[in-house]
Amino acid sequence: MSTSRETPSAQATSLRPFFAVWFGQVFSLLGSELVQFGLVWWLTTTTGSATVLTLATMMAVLPRVFVSPIAGPLVDRWDRRLVMMLADGLSALAILVLAVLFAFDAVQVWHIYTVMFVRAACGAFHWPAMQASTTLMVPEEHLARVAGLTQSLQGMGSIVAPPLGALLLAVLPMQGLLAIDVVTAILAIVPLLLVRVPRPERTTAAAQESQPSVVADLREALRFLRGWPGVLMVVTIAVLVNALIFPAISLQPLLVTEHFGGDALQLGWWQSAFGIGMVAGGLTLSVWGGFKRRSVTGLLALALNGLGLALIGLTPAHAFPWAVAAVFFAWFMNPIANGALLAMLQTIVPAEMQGRVFTLVQSASGLMIPLGLGVAGPLARVLGVQVWFLAAGVAMAVLGIGALFVPAITRLDEVTRGRSTVAGANDPAPVAANAQ
Q1: How does DSSP assign 241-279, residue by residue?
Q2: What average pLDDT does the structure give for the chain?
Q3: Is 261 left (phi over 0), alpha (psi -120 to 50) or beta?
Q4: Rg of the chain's alpha carbons, rounded to an integer?
Q5: How far from the centroid of its chain's Cα atoms is residue 402's Cα?
Q6: Is the pLDDT of residue 192 over 50?
Q7: What confidence tier does 78 reach under pLDDT thresholds 50, 70, 90?
Q8: Which of 44, 54, 319, 431 is the most buried (most CB within 10 A)?
Q9: 334 vs 158: CA distance, rounded Å
Q10: Structural domains in the chain plus CATH codes
């Protein structure tokens, strides 16, 4: 039986509690980026093995695929504030153990793999808990702005962490760099001790069972997605885009060196355009908030993101500055697309089910990463690296523009805007009827 409840973000009246938590997460993200840079650098200089680096990447991806489906139901069932605290704390503990191993010169490659896996598993719990909590702590009209600000923060991390990490490694031993992450984790946990994070009341069918299982909770989330074709289409688009865009990110250094004949300086310009574009795009969305129809904002930005990638693939080898401009344009549009579509899902998906739905998206997206790389690698070797950028860009543009003409997707704006109740997960039809 489904029971109506208040719109999740309608409960939020002030942004102060959210930003108290958010600023703590800013420090945690910076510490995590520094650790990631330091560990990858250590693996590179110590082993010089591409296989080792590939396995390290897989340790960071696998939990997204296999841990996320379990994490989602638990996030929805547990206190999300406690989930975030435990995730930050366990991640910091793993780094502390690794710092001790470095201090005693006892670290081995498999220790790095283990810590990367543990941190990624903690992230599989932390990310959905934070996104689901955001829904309850931020007024609905500001969700896109907050998503844009978060995207901008991630872009800033990609700019600041590498040079700062290199500077710190020049003056600190590895265990000193790792200790910084432990301190930033504490800075993330302290606000969570002081701020109340709302908990949604579970009113859906699985919650009515005497002992609902993880499988039952996941089945309920899948029924929700099947019940709303528009939401399922948006989720499918997000998963497909992940398969297209991750290989493009991975192939950027090869494109600079092989197609454009560049060196470290050109790669630096490229990566700067990448990071600055993300920061600028995220800040633009945080100030602007997007069009009134979030689907238009997200899908149009997705199409323009694809156009930027296609332009990169079409740029001749002698026109490197134009490619850098296309990089900036593509990654300027990326956080606008991500932020607008995430805000739309945060408004539509019932608060008590967001952990499950978001981790299903996370798991499916993680699974598509090795599949995308498996296709992109051989294609790049046979036809050239730039061909993947062109193909991925065209596919993303087609997905974005095509989705704008799908009523099941565009009507999601009408469903979310101006409503005060939402039906339960097993009965989406009454919500759709409100849009008519």
Answers
A1: HHHHHHHHHHHHHHIIIIIS---HHHHHHHHHHHHHHHH
A2: 83
A3: left
A4: 22
A5: 24
A6: yes
A7: confident
A8: 431
A9: 14
A10: 5-432 (1.20.1250.20)
Tell me whether residue 26 is exposed, middle or buried, using C-beta atoms within 10 angstroms of its C-beta: 0 to 12, 13 to 18, 19 or more: middle
Stretch 407-421: mean pLDDT, rounded? 67
Q: How far apart are the first and last CA of the chain?
A: 23
Amino acid 8: pLDDT: 45
Residues 6+ apart with CB under 8 A from 356: 72, 73, 75, 76, 217, 218, 220, 221
> What one-letter code names the amino acid at 347?
T
Name the H helices within 104-142.
Answer: 109-137
Q: Give the separation between CA 216 and CA 177, rounded to whole angstroms.
A: 43
Length of the chain: 436
Q: Which of 110, 393, 386 is nearest to 261 (CA)?
A: 386
At 287, is the secondary structure helix, strand, or coil?
helix
Quick one: which of 366, 305, 308 has its CA closest to 340? 305
Q: How far apart are CA 120 and CA 67, in angstroms?
A: 9
- 33-56 average pLDDT score: 81
Position 107 scores a pLDDT of 93
